[in-house]
Amino acid sequence: MTCIRDLLSILPNIILYLASGYAFVQTFRFVALKERKQEINHLLTSSLVIGYVIVNIMNLIPFTISYQADCVGIIITSVIASFLFSKFYMSDLLYRILKRLHIYTTTKDHFWMNFVDFDYPSYVKIQMKDNTIYSGYYYFMEGYDRQPLISLAAYRQVNPNGDIENHQTDETSVILLDTKDAKSVQFVYYDRSRKCVDIKDLISNHNEYGSPTYSEFHTENDR
Known about the structure:
Elements: H1 2-31, H2 40-58, H3 67-90, H4 92-100, E1 123-128, E2 133-141, E3 149-158, E4 164-167, E5 174-178, E6 182-188, H5 195-203, H6 214-217
Antiparallel strand pairs: 1-2, 1-6, 2-3, 3-4, 3-5
Helix pairs in contact: 1-2, 1-3
């Protein structure tokens, strides 16, 4: 009986840990485009651990309204904290921090997300296998797929015979393309985009003596 009473006494805390942790995990997976299919054991464990940390941090705040209100506040805080963490996790800032630490990897599960500019509209040129070329602004992209569906707005279509279908000023339509049928995909960025910083760094290698491309841009007299 004592064991049962002890279990019942800590049950509300366990439920709170699970609820707040689950809210954090699921918000993170949604915002950061993480695959949401997960083994139940792993999900429960991660929710419990994260919830335990969140609840104990919140308990450090010397302010309370009531137990019920505090529980709701903890769960709402979990969602907000997860959203902010997810935005940082997906940001170029984290990439630059990792780069300074000489960690050359991506935090994004879906490789395509490394090329989408979330600060400025991305212009995309897609050449299909039948040589039809679509050019337009990135609108939406399917998640959880290595070769996703992608939609373009304010686009134009250049057919293999040279005919052009212009929808660049069409406010009523977008086009959905399957990148499995694409031969190449090109992203073009605003000149103010932070994506251009990395591209400029790579271009600077043309002027670095000893680089593989130095001889293509300089004569013998430049050495």
